[in-house]
Design the sequence.
């Protein structure tokens, strides 16, 4: 892992919140980052290795919460609309349903990402009060 990749991954892991490439750039300026391209290159490699995921709905990145995630064909995330926390989970049944549906249609699945938006239990408890 390069120095830049390590710094980007550590920044994502320390926050445990999704971050845009520009937020990462701002956070890492003191470490020598000067251009968005530095962040995007590091993110690209980290995504390839399964250490980081891109959340399409937020246009942000989050550190993988599972070991060996690069071998998973399906990544799934619960995104709290209130506090913006993101929890990664393994959607075993959904993955099977996707594979079966794709097979029936003669489609070969390379990768799928599921993003579920709602409220985490802590935010739900606050809104119920």
Sequence:
């Amino acid at each position: 892992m390069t120095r830049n990749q390590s710094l980007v991954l550590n920044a994502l892991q320390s926050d445990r919140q999704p971050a845009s490439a520009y937020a990462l750039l701002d956070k890492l300026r003191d470490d020598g980052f000067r251009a968005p391209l530095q962040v995007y290159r590091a993110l690209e490699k980290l995504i390839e290795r399964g250490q980081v995921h891109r959340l399409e709905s937020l246009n942000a990145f989050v550190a993988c919460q599972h070991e060996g995630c690069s071998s998973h064909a399906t990544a799934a995330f619960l995104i709290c609309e209130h506090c913006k926390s993101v929890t990664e989970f393994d959607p075993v049944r959904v993955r099977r349903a996707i594979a079966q549906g794709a097979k029936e249609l003669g489609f070969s699945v390379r990768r799928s990402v599921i993003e579920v938006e709602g409220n985490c239990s802590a935010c739900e408890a606050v809104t119920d009060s």
